[in-house]
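Intended use. Records like the one below are meant for learning the mapping from a protein sequence to its folded structure. Do not use them to infer anything beyond what is encoded.
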Amino acid sequence: MKRLLAVALVVLAAPAWAQRTELTLQAGYTTPGNIEQKALSIQELEIEGGFTWGFAATHFFSPRLGAELSWVQQETGVSLSTSSGSATLFDMKLAQLHGGLVYQFGSEEARLKPFVSVGLGASFLSARDMDGETKLSMGLGAGLRWLPRKSIGARFQARYNPTYLNDSSSDYCDPFGFCQSWLHQFELTGGVVLRF
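Structure written out for the chain above:
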C-alpha cells in the first residue's frame, strides 16, 4: 500500500515538476582569451574567439531558484602575432560542462524574467595530435528570459567563464615556455527555451 501511494504521489507531482523544467538550445560567440605573459618578440598570443554552441537544462525548485547543468563548445585555435604578421598555430576545441544555480527575478507569471547564474565545472581542451586536458572552470552570468507562451521562449545571456590553467606543462597555455593562472573569456549567447 505504501509503495502504491508513493508511486501515485510521483505520478501526480510529475506535471508540477515538468512545468518548471526547461531545455535551452543556445548559440553565440566567445571572446578571445589572451595569454598574458609573452616573449619580447610576441605582440599577442591568445586562444581565439569564435562561434559557441550548446545547451542548458534547468529545473526551478521555486518560482525564483533553480539548478542548471550546461554544456557549451567553442571551435577555436591558438594564434600568435608578431611585428611580421600573425598565424594560427593550431586549431582546438574548448568545451565546458558546468553545474550551478540560477536565480530569476520577477513574478512567476511574468513574460520577461531577468536572471543571474553561477556555476562550477570543467573545461576540456582538445586538439589534433595533442593530448586533451581537463581544467577547473567557473561561470558567472546574467541574462533575460522571454516566455511568451508556457511551453516555448527565448533566452539571452552574457557569462564570464574563467578557466584555471596554472600548469607550466600544458601545451595549450604554455606553447613557448610561459603560462598564467587563469584564462579569461566572456560568452554571449542566445537560444530557444523549451519548457516541459
